[in-house]
Amino acid sequence: MKPGEIIFIFRLLTLVIILRLIDYQQLVIILRSIDPNMVILAILLELCGFLIWALKWKFLVDRLKPVKFSILFLGLMGENVLNTNVARARTFGGFGKAMFLKNVTNDHRHANWYATIVMDQTTNSFVFSIPVSFSLIFVLLFLDIPRWLSILLEVIALIFFLLAFFAYLSKHKINRSAQVSFFYLILKRTYYFSLFKFIRKRFDSYQIFEELLITGIAEFEKTYKSIMKDRKILSIDIGLSVLMFAFIYLKTYMIFQSVGYDITIADLIVSLSLVLWLISILPIPGGLGIKELIMVGIYSMVGIPITIAVIVSLIDRVIYLFFVIFIAYAAIFIMRLFHIGQRKEDKAKDDMQGIIDIDNLR
Question: What is d(CA 194, CA 305) in angstroms, rounded to the nearest whole number?
Answer without folding.
Answer: 52
